[in-house]
Amino acid sequence: MDLGLVGLGKMGGNMRTRLRNAGHTVIGYDRNPDLADAASLAAMVEQLPSPKVVWVMVPAGDPTRQTIRELADLLGEGDLVVDGGNSKWTDDQVNAEMLAQKGIGFVDCGVSGGVWGLENGYALMCGGSDADVAKIQPAFDALKPDEGGFVHAGKKPGAGHFAKMVHNGIEYAIMQSYAEGWELLEKVDLVDNVTEVFDSWRSGTVIRSWLLDLLVAALEDDQHLEKIAGYAEDSGEGRWTVEAAIDNAVPMNVIAASLFARFVSRQDDSPAMKAIAAMRNQFGGHAVHTEPPVGADAHPAP
């Protein structure tokens, strides 16, 4: 299939490559001209055959809202917009209604896989009508892993991003558990080989996971995480998960606590947050705070 892809950063650029490797034609646009295939958003849309399909992979919030508003003026009846960023599900409802007034379809898609998605495939959670999902299904099939990894979460706008939001909330809690366990093992003068302990858990145990693999990779690179400050960002989706839990009276003690732990990390240099920051950097290439070398500045807050 032919599609436009807006936003060619860490994930968007790799997605373009994976789609092309599967035989699809992708015309990409990015504000960085070194990455773009088209000189402007309008030029990208002009090169697409009808019905046109445009996938948006830009930061959530105003950048996504503005991009979709621009696309609403460039696309026409029967065309389709896919929001693959980390937008809040309530934005999807607004965008879907606005596009529908012009006969333009809309699919929201939570994408997980980080910088490893090019090789391993991306987990995809989408929301939208059966007809709109069918239009973009060949791209979903190319992006997802060889087995599993795709779900049409619901037909209402926002279903995909809501599912991805809960996924990220769970991710917060799992990472926090690993991080606290690492801090305790480091603290007690009893275990000599902390990294080897975590490595041993990767096979045969009930807590083995890809996040555990990534933590071991980070520890092998920096055994005591001395290069990383105990400060961890939150993407926003953990906050939205807790807000949704409050709105629906669903107790989320562990996920809420893991979110608040990240807030605490911004006040004190937390050993556990070193592990959180290290895992985030492993799977998403997220910036970490590092101690400054002599005569230089520390890595600034993202």
UniProtKB/TrEMBL annotation:
SMART domains: 6PGD (SM01350). PROSITE patterns: 6PGD. The keyword rRNA processing does not apply. Keywords: Gluconate utilization, Oxidoreductase. Its EC number is 1.1.1.343. It is an enzyme of class 1 (oxidoreductase). Belongs to the 6-phosphogluconate dehydrogenase family. This is Phosphogluconate dehydrogenase (NAD(+)-dependent, decarboxylating). The lineage of its organism: Bacteria, Bacillati, Actinomycetota, Actinomycetes, Propionibacteriales.
